[in-house]
């Protein structure tokens, strides 16, 4: 939950000044923030040729080279640094909220800042780990390996001789981040209050999502848990290396992991030296993400080339697990089904599965969404090979949802973006790489696995338990309703002449629902029993046959109840 306190006026002025200087004066005025611009700056612009950007929303901005909106936005965020760079990086993942042009430009954001001093590093590490630096490390390099707006990394050697990477949060960064998030909340509210067309993009909801993710990144233990989770998933995979976490040297502000040495993914000249194959690395990386997306439902949320190393023997090393995505089982199955339909060129079915992943608003334009999605799919179906990409088609469809009133969860958007980046990396390594050729047999195998009796039995048990829980909750819900009615908090008005008819119809529908519930449960159990050898039987008749017979009788009764209709 965002805090209710107000941000400091000094920081608001710093933020507004940067945007004002880069030509966002009209935007600042529209959002009623001109009070934060010093009077002498506004006075100096009077009579000068203005290079201000017009106030238009990203979706209908009609951007031109002269406007240069994406570049100026990126420069503003870079100058503000820290939180705003992170905010821009997250916006770059949300082409559903900004144009693809803006998203592409924001991906260029540089998070390189001057390092903080070694004295501050020493003080932070010693405070967090509770001992002098020399009592924890045999050696600790004074110069960082890399410095970013939230943290910097130093190479060190533990007392047992193991080389590690130590990531330390910047001093005071938590206070600054919370201050900037307060400002972003205020700007989002101003957008919704004063720009009606902005409401469809739900800026306050996006800032709340950004706050949640950023505050998670400020606790190094969250990234440590993510690393350990991924490491457990690939413990037996010799082609994937994930650095181990050194928990004894890890706290909320310090993260210590194995130090890894390798070449960057795009350092092609070094592949021969390591005796590595670009084609092999592309295949390994693709399978790596297939497992994350379609089997584990837990995936690296920022898979750009800088977060991967290539190590000798065609080993792929992953880094930076601050942002991860999750797909629940239902969404994961919808993703698989939609991609199978993509590959089968079944646009209608693919779009229905995509819709099942999102939430449709009351005022949604479903026809418009389906028309746009169909056009995107047909462009991929019938364009020459190499001109369109499957991953891009999925991303464009999901991104088009917001303007039609179809909202997709952040994890679905993150998945769609991650699969685009994954395919882009594969093509970078091997320009002739065909993701559809690699994906088709994999998805077909997954569908077969999902239909195995063991998995069907598990879902059948879950379905039966949900049904029992629902039935058991009815008496308590009825008691609550009666109490509310007694306190006159619920008003009920019924025409008594129709009461008998209503009762009969309720009874009929209840009977039909319970019969269908038992029918479905029975059929699932029957399917499982028939697939298992050595089924027990009664009087020589297998339980599966008995179940099928009972299911058939229940089905006939249910159909009769439904066909009978209201009396």
Topology (elements, then pairings):
Blueprint lengths: L8 H13 L3 H6 L8 H7 L23 H12 L2 H9 L8 H7 L11 H12 L7 E4 L5 E2 L3 E8 L4 E7 L3 H22 L8 H15 L2 H14 L6 E2 L12 E5 L4 E2 L6 H4 L3 H19 L1 E3 L7 E4 L3 E4 L5 E3 L2 H15 L3 H11 L1 E2 L5 H17 L7 H10 L6 E2 L2 H20 L5 H16 L2 H34 L12 H32 L6 E2 L2 E2 H22 L3
Parallel strand pairs: 5-10
Antiparallel strand pairs: 1-3, 2-3, 3-4, 4-6, 7-9, 8-11, 9-10, 12-13, 14-15
Count of individual beta strands: 15
Stretches where pLDDT is under 50 for at least 5 consecutive residues are 58-66
Mean pLDDT: 80
Strand content: 5-15%
Assign a percent range to the helix content. Answer: 55-70%
Biggest β-sheet: count, sense, barrel?
5 strands, antiparallel
What would you note in describing this structure?
The protein has 567 residues and is α+β, with helices and mostly antiparallel strands. It has three domains: 148 residues, no CATH class; 187 residues, no CATH class; 105 residues, no CATH class. Helix content is 56%, strand content 9%. Strands 1, 2, 3, 4 and 6 form a five-stranded antiparallel beta sheet that branches. β2 and β3 form a beta hairpin. The radius of gyration is 29 Å and the shape is globular. The chain starts with 8 loop residues before the first helix and ends with a helix.
């Amino acid at each position: 939950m965002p805090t209710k306190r107000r941000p400091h006026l000094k920081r608001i002025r710093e933020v507004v000044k940067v945007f004002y200087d880069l030509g966002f004066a009209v935007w600042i005025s529209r959002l009623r923030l001109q009070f934060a611009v010093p009077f002498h700056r506004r006075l100096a612009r009077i009579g000068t040729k203005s290079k201000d950007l017009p106030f238009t929303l990203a979706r209908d901005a009609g951007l031109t080279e002269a406007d240069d909106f994406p570049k100026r936005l990126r420069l503003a965020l870079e100058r503000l640094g820290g939180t705003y760079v992170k905010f821009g990086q997250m916006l770059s993942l949300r082409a559903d909220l900004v144009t693809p042009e803006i998203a592409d430009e924001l991906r260029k954001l540089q998070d390189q800042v001057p390092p903080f001093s070694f004295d501050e590093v020493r003080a932070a590490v010693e405070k967090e780990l509770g001992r002098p630096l020399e009592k924890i490390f045999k050696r600790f390099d004074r110069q960082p390996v890399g410095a970013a707006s939230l943290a910097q990394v130093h190479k060190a050697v533990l007392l047992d001789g193991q080389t590690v990477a130590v990531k330390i949060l910047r001093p005071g960064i938590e206070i600054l981040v919370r201050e900037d998030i307060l400002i972003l909340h205020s700007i989002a509210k101003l957008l919704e209050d004063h720009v009606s067309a902005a409401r469809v993009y739900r800026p306050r909801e996006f800032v709340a999502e950004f706050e949640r993710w950023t505050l998670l990144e400020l606790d190094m233990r969250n990234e440590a848990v993510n690393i350990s989770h991924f490491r457990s998933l690939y413990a037996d995979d010799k082609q994937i290396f994930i650095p181990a976490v050194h928990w004894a040297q890890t706290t909320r502000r310090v993260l210590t992991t194995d130090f890894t040495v390798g070449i960057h993914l795009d350092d092609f000249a070094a592949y021969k030296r390591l005796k590595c194959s670009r084609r092999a690395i592309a295949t390994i990386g693709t399978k790596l993400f297939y497992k994350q997306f379609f089997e584990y439902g837990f995936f690296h949320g920022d898979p750009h080339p800088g977060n991967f190393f290539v190590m000798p023997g065609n080993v792929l090393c992953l880094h930076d697990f601050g942002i991860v995505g999750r797909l629940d089982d239902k969404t994961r199955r919808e993703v698989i089904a939609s991609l199978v339909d993509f590959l089968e060129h079944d646009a209608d079915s693919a779009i229905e599965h995509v819709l099942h992943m999102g939430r449709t608003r009351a005022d949604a334009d479903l026809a418009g969404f389906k028309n746009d999605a169909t056009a995107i799919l047909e462009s991929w179906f019938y364009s020459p090979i190499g001109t369109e990409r499957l991953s891009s088609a999925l991303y464009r469809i999901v991104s088009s949802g917001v303007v039609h009133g179809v909202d997709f969860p952040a994890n679905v958007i993150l998945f769609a973006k991650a699969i685009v980046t994954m395919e882009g990396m594969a093509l970078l390594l091997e320009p002739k790489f065909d993701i559809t050729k690699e994906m088709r047999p994999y998805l077909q195998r997954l569908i077969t696995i999902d239909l195995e009796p063991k998995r069907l039995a598990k879902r059948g048990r879950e379905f039966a338990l949900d049904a029992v829980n629902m039935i058991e909750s009815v008496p308590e819900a009825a008691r609550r309703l009666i109490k509310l009615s007694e306190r006159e908090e619920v008003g009920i008005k019924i025409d008594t002449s129709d009461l008998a008819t209503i009762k009969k119809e309720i009874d009929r529908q209840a009977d039909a629902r319970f019969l269908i519930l038992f029918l479905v449960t029975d059929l699932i159990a029957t399917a499982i029993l028939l697939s298992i050898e050595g089924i027990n039987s009664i009087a020589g008749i297998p339980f599966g046959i008995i179940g099928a017979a009972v299911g058939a009788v229940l089905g006939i009764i249910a159909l009769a109840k439904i066909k009978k209709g209201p009396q």
